[in-house]
Design a protein that fits this description.
single chain, alpha/beta, Heat Shock Protein 90, 2 domains, five-stranded mixed sheet, 34% helix
Length: 275
């Protein structure tokens, strides 16, 4: 079991770089001291990492960022509340609850299809007045990802987060689970490596289940995000994949990360007011 040590930004392109050999046989460390920012998928991945370590019987200690503003941001994004509820020991400051202008959905655990769908509907209602197409893509993406967690990851739930950045003109949403990963899910369909599984997961018609109509959710999501000028980033095991409409960029890392992590990014036609 590794430690997780963040340096700078924690997001879709840096998750694997955060893994380190364990420094203790008695506890697992989540070291956020050098963190400067956590994207939505950084938040959801931190939660799934802690969940898996605790499930394995390890004590989990979370060290706060040295930058006080980053520590307050994580607390406002409910990272401390979420990790504490899982059973981790968390050192983050208490902050007064108030809305964040660049947040649609703080880090939240969902249970089952309906839990993900309810959160998706709530976020859709907030975005639809400014960009109906982006709101629909977001809603469909969150619902599909929630279904995948239950049907393929062998988990009863996962973690969601969504954020508005770039002066209200970019939407990012993330879903993570601590499940079996895409390779185990798609090995019966011919996947031999994590990179194989990622590429297969976004192709239409490929699913671990043989039922008609399966295997279209992620491929539809990639197509829709690409049509809107966005992208989908998938991480599972030792690989990560960036999937615009025109190309697939896959990376293979020395260490594997638990579960499956998805982040979608969509530029918005009209700026969403922040604050």
């Amino acid at each position: 079991m590794p430690d997780l040590v963040t340096e700078g930004r924690c997001g879709e392109s840096t998750l694997h770089r955060c893994l380190r050999p364990r420094t203790s046989d008695h506890w697992t460390r989540i070291d956020l001291r050098a963190l400067t920012f956590a994207e939505p998928v950084g938040l959801t991945a931190l939660a799934t990492f802690a969940e898996e370590q605790l499930r394995a019987g390890h004590r989990v200690l979370v060290q706060r960022p040295e930058d006080a503003s980053v520590a307050r941001y994580l607390a406002r994004m409910r990272l401390d509340e979420t990790l504490t509820a899982l059973g981790a020991e968390v050192d983050l400051p208490h902050v007064r609850a108030r809305p964040l202008g660049n947040v649609l959905l703080e880090l939240t655990r969902f249970d089952g299809h309906r839990g993900a769908g309810a959160l998706a509907q709530m976020v859709h209602a907030l975005i639809a007045p400014y960009d109906a197409e982006a709101a629909n893509a977001l809603h469909n993406g969150l619902c599909e990802a929630g279904i995948n967690v239950v049907d393929h990851a062998r988990r009863d739930g996962g973690f969601l987060a969504a954020q508005i950045t770039h002066n209200g003109r970019r939407l990012s949403f993330a879903v993570s689970d601590s499940g079996i990963g895409l390779l185990r899910s798609l090995s019966r369909k011919g996947a031999r490596t994590d990179a194989d599984a990622l590429r297969m997961a976004i192709r239409p018609g490929i699913s671990e289940h043989d039922d008609p109509g399966r295997g279209v959710g992620l491929s539809d999501m990639v197509r829709e995000l690409s049509r809107l000028g966005g992208h989908l980033h998938l991480t599972s095991g030792r690989s990560s994949l960036l999937a615009p409409d025109t190309s697939e960029e896959t990376h293979v890392w020395p260490q594997g990360i638990t579960g499956t992590h998805l982040q979608g990014v969509i530029p918005l036609r009209h700026a969403v007011p922040l604050g």
